[in-house]
C-alpha cells in the first residue's frame, strides 16, 4: 500500500491535533521528498545516522520527534545542518517531524507510553500547555522498584534522587528535557517526578521538598511516541514501518 505525501501529512496533522499547540518548531513536513510513500522509518531524532539508516532500508519518509528549524537556532544552513538536509534531498526522503503534539497525544504520545511503563493510572495534568501528567499507583511502589522497572523497560539505568525506600503513591511525569517542570511539580501533591534529563538544581529541590526526582533519559523516554505513531500508521494505511533505534545515552 502507498499514500501520498500530502495525504499522510493531513492525516497525522488531524490525528495529533497539531493546530492546538504552540510549538518551537514546525510540525509536519519539514523537508520535502518523493510524492508517494510506501515505507516509513521512525526515529527519535533526524540525525545524519538516522537519515543514512532510513536510506539503507529504502524508506520514502523519515518520521521523527526531534526535527529541525527550532525557534532561536541560527538560520543559516551550514555545518551539520547542511550535511543532514543535503543528504535528505539527495536521497529524496521526506522528513516529517512532530514535537509537542507527539508528547501530548492520549494514545500514542510520549507521555502516554511512558505512563504505561510507569504503571500509573493517569489522573491529571499540569505545566505549560498541560504537557506534564499526574498518575496514581494502585499499589504503592518504592523509588528503588520504580528505578528497576524503568531500567529494564527503557534499557537504560535511570538517575534516582530521593529516599529509595519511600513508597510512592502519586507521581508526575513528562518525557524528554522537562526538568524545569520540577519547580511546579514539587509544589503539587505528588511523591516523585520523572523526566528524561536532570539539571543541577533538581537535587536540592528534591531534598528540600521531599519529592523524589528521576531522570530516565531524554532519548529513552521519547522512543515510545514515534514508535506508537508508526505502528498506528502501519495499521491505518497498510504501510511498511520500521523503527530505527540510534543509540543515545542522554
Ligand atoms: Zn525531546
UniProtKB/TrEMBL annotation:
Gene Ontology cellular-component terms listed: cytoplasm
Taxonomy, superkingdom: Bacteria
Coiled coil: none
Keyword Phosphoprotein tagged: no
Family according to the record: Belongs to the GTP cyclohydrolase I type 2/NIF3 family.
NCBIfam families listed in its UniProt record: YbgI_SA1388
The name this protein goes by in its record: Putative GTP cyclohydrolase 1 type 2
Gene: ybgI
Amino acid at each position: 500500500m502507498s499514500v501520498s505525501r500530502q495525504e499522510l501529512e493531513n492525516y497525522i496533522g488531524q490525528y495529533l491535533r497539531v493546530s492546538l499547540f504552540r510549538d518551537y518548531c514546525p510540525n509536519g513536513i519539514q523537508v520535502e521528498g518523493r510524492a508517494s510513500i510506501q515505507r516509513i522509518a521512525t526515529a527519535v531524532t533526524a540525525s545524519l545516522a538516522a537519515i543514512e539508516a532510513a536510506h539503507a532500508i529504502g524508506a520514502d519518509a523519515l518520521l521523527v520527534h526531534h526535527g529541525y528549524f527550532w525557534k532561536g537556532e541560527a538560520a543559516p544552513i551550514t555545518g551539520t545542518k547542511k550535511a543532514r538536509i543535503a543528504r535528505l534531498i539527495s536521497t529524496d526522503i521526506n522528513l516529517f517531524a512532530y514535537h509537542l503534539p507527539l508528547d501530548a497525544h492520549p494514545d500514542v504520545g510520549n507521555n502516554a507510553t511512558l505512563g504505561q511503563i510507569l504503571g500509573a493510572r493517569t489522573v491529571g495534568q499540569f505545566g505549560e500547555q498541560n504537557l506534564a501528567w499526574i498518575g496514581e499507583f494502585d499499589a504503592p511502589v518504592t523509588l528503588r522498584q520504580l528505578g528497576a522497572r524503568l531500567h529494564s523497560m527503557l534499557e537504560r539505568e535511570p538517575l534516582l534522587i530521593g529516599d529509595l525506600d519511600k513508597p510512592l503513591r502519586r507521581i508526575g511525569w513528562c518525557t524528554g528535557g522537562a526538568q524545569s517542570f520540577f519547580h511546579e511539580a514539587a509544589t503539587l501533591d505528588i511523591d516523585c517526578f520523572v523526566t528524561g534529563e536532570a539539571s543541577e538544581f533538581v537535587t536540592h529541590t528534591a531534598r528540600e521538598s521531599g519529592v523524589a526526582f528521576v531522570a530516565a533519559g531524554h532519548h529513552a523516554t521519547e522512543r515510545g511516541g514515534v514508535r506508537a505513531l508508526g505502528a498506528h500508521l502501519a495499521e491505518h494505511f497498510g504501510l511498511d514501518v520500521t523503527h530505527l533505534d540510534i543509540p543515545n545515552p542522554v
